[in-house]
Amino acid sequence: MNLLRGKVVIVTGASDGIGAKLAATLRERGAKVCLSARNEGRLAAAAGPDDLVIPGDLTDDAVRRAIISKTAGHWGTIDVLINNAGRGSYLAPSEEPVEEARALFDLNFFAPLALAQLATPHLRRSRGSLVNVSSIAGQISLPWLPVYSASKFALAAITTAQRAELRREGVHVMGVFPGYVDTDFQRHASGTAPAVIAGNRRFAVTAVECAEAIVTGIEHRRNTVVTPRAGWLLVWANRLFPGVVEARLERV
What's the pTM value of the predicted model, to 2 decimals? Predict the structure, then answer.
């Protein structure tokens, strides 16, 4: 049984990487997809003929409002919001300009929060799903992605709070914590990744695999998705032996 057939789904950051593969996977499941991202050309290339495409900068409130109003106006409802857009920063805490840190939080935390607030009335009516794509860096502070980790920890925390608020009204809230996904994340991030990180793709999953894990999580209304599943080992090691994990990460 196809649980997403006919459902209206918004995907942010949908021009490439995980977002583009999410749109394709949802389309295969029969969903009605709205794609949003800044790059209009790539967004159009990632979209199907029946998709709704809304380009723009998610840190702009007018763009966020347009995404929600145009999607609801086009299809009459919103069943799923996937907050996937985000970017990284490899700059050290002592070097990251405060304005750059604010801009990172604007995209990685405040934009998803604001979009969720706009979408919540629709999700309450549809008893739909709110999905926040955090990162394994939102469970374990990665010293080579310090401010990015902080923004993803914030997103993970608000996801838990949103679940507590909306569960009683039938809204499903899911946090997603991808590990190393084979995308252009490093190219779009500020600063430069350490050589050992930049060149090590041994444990990477593809964007297709990550998208499939997210969509399956929505279908089964799971609270949390960690992909690859081996990432749970690192999460639990950090919870049980934080000092050991921190010491190992500092050597990277």
Answer: 0.92
